[in-house]
Amino acid sequence: MQRAKVATLLVSALLVSALIAPFFVTNNFVLHALTMSLIFAILAASWDLLFGFAGQVSFGHAGFFGLGAYASAMLSYYAGLSPWLGLLAGGLIASVFGLLVGFPSLRLRGVYLALATLACSEMLRIVVTNWVPVTRGTLGFNLHPGFTFVPNTPTTHYYIILVGAALSTGSMYLMAARSRLGLVLRALAVDDIRAQALGVDVFRMKLLAFSVSGFFAGFAGALYAHFIGLVTPNETASSLTILIVAMATIGGVGTIIGPAIAAIVIHFITEMLQIAGTVYDQIAVGLVLMLFVLFLPDGIAGIVRAKVT
Fold first, then answer.
1. What integer pLDDT is reported at residue 186 of this predicted model?
2. So what's the pLDDT on residue 103?
3. Of 25, 23, 26, 34, which Cα lies nearest the Cα of 271?
4. Residue 259 CA, distance from chain mean position
5. In 3D, which of 156, 170, 206, 155 has the Cα closest to residue 42?
6. What is the pTM of this model?
7. How far is it, in rounded angstroms, from Cα 157 to Cα 143?
8. 55: phi > 0 → left, psi -120 to 50 → alpha, else beta; which?
9. Domain assignments of the chain as residue spans, ordered by start
10. % of the chain beyond a pLDDT of 70
11. pLDDT at 1
12. Which of 307, 266, 260 is nearest to 288 (CA)?
């Protein structure tokens, strides 16, 4: 009970801090970095939902993110779909992609599953890079509109992304930690053979985890597309997945909130370090990840849990 109260207080404090942040941040670059950090919070939490609760290793999570971004952007331009509906469309298309990736891949385990998901993400990157008439290739797709019917200001964009991040992360937390689905997924991660013996349709539940995780990653990609105004093949690169995995590990796998908080902190710091040079941010993330893996394997969430108990 005490742990739940502390967790509630921490989350409430973070939400209040996030709500009032634009009143204290006057530099547009800093506010931009904070806004991008919120998008990465959704992305890190979606990977944690798949691995931390369902136990499915994915090295192709950037594919969901990139597909959601491209889908929402191109539907807004080619089909005239509202960007607001494009957010849902990007998530749904990434969710379907999760089903397509999961159906053959989930017959594999461990490193083979990870390599299969990486291969699917790389195939998607090759497609968007070479389908120049539609995606504009390495030039990037920038023909789609931004968020419509709202002021085009950094503060407005920040609050739009904040609402999306709060709803997404909160939904994933309730789904994973407070629902029957979460219990089933944790049972699969611990021992899927025993879960199957108890009557759980293991393959179907794993497929569902891929689909739901893909939806939220695609939703994050759609938010990114309409916020930045440019989508490139880099959004599907494996280096992005590695960064997501690092964020989730540092935050604490299997907690949802931990990876989301870590993503906000890490991405914001790396954005600030890019002022000094593009290499220093990568070095910093690598060093922090090594320290957490060696000395704090339970991540930030583990530190909070230890202080409470």
1. 87
2. 80
3. 34
4. 9
5. 170
6. 0.91
7. 19
8. left
9. 34-240
10. 86
11. 47
12. 266
